[in-house]
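User: Sequence in, structure out. Go.
Assistant: Echoing your sequence, followed by the structure tokens.
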Amino acid sequence: MIVGGGVIGLSIAWRAAQQGMRVVIADPAPGQGATHAAAGMLTPIAEAAYAEREIFALGQQSLLRYPAFAAELEQAAGLPTGFRQAGTLQVAYDSDDLAVLEELRALQDSFGAATCQLTARECREAEPMLDPSIRGGLLASDDGSLDPRLLATALLRAATTAGAWHVPQQVAEILTEPVTSAEVGASGPGAAGAGTNAAGADPGLGRASGVRFADGSELAAPAVVLAAGWESAGFAGLPAGCAPPVRPVKGQILRLRSTATMTAAGLPPGLLRRTVRGIVRGSSVYLVPRESGELVVGATQEELGADATVTAGGVWGLLRDARALVPGITELALAEVVAGLRPGTPDNAPLLGPAALPGLVLATGHFRAGVLLAPVTADTISRYLVTGQSDPLWAAFRPDRFPSAGARPRQRAATTQQAATQGAATQGAAR
């Protein structure tokens, strides 16, 4: 039973169904949450941040899997994903921004990331539509991007084709039942459910045994995978201490489009060849081109709880900084503005693996990296469901790394003190 039909839940469903498991995906609107708002950057190098070495390593591992993952998915679904591996160009708008970029390069070097430093002229040769004021940049040539909306559609098609069953309902409650003496000590997704014998699992809590839907109907399952993004914290039925500590982090994002078939410079109608991430007077902004000519501009990072309101200030800030980097965007149509809610954790790293409640498996809290981490999450979680063996890649992302947190109401996800200090409406790198 997979609760949540974003890119994470759908990817797990596809891989698990491929391995012969009977899979049910519960979501009233697959792909319409954080996935719908995401830009689809595949940029572990450009996303490298202090204290996030483990996330960088996991992202690198997932990026290595993406070309084969996307090709297999497109063949299985008969649908495109928009996958491109054209690299990411990070640029600095002024001399102060260049100093920040140089610090970022030193950090990336310490992680073992491969980037190429470019002069201002080389940046404009790589992307002719950049503003002449650009002072310099870094090129991560292995980075990629895709369209998360296309990805979600293809994943749902591939999963159901492989035998997964989609239930278009909201899950209202996680069901539990006592663990029998015969089940204690069992492991894997058998009678006791995946995770019964996993480190941190507590048979005294009983075990997850299925779900109750919003219409009152129930479905039994020996393993329940919680992949509902920020809403994962709020399901009824979870014993005290078993709700994952996730919170909603708002991100506003724009989509610009052109009706032209080619620019005067011979570029795609979206003005850019590859993803451009910029630092503009201390603020971060990114521009992600699509083959269709769409240009995605994002994103704000706001600690406002479950508020998904689009604001004039958010739109203005994104357009201001994007125009500073690529003045030509003013000729594009403002096609869409949307706000999504990313699932953040206290350390902004995902929760992967068995929970304290036997039979409950967590695949949530991916924050800005849900699209990037979909392949590695799907591969490792589905393998665990089959074998009952935790993956070494989860070492830094185990759910039991945080103190126990009780269940919280769905509309009032907690905001950690660490997150609050980041500011209520900072511009951030986000997916």
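User: And one key feature?
Assistant: Residues 53-77 form the longest helix (25 residues).
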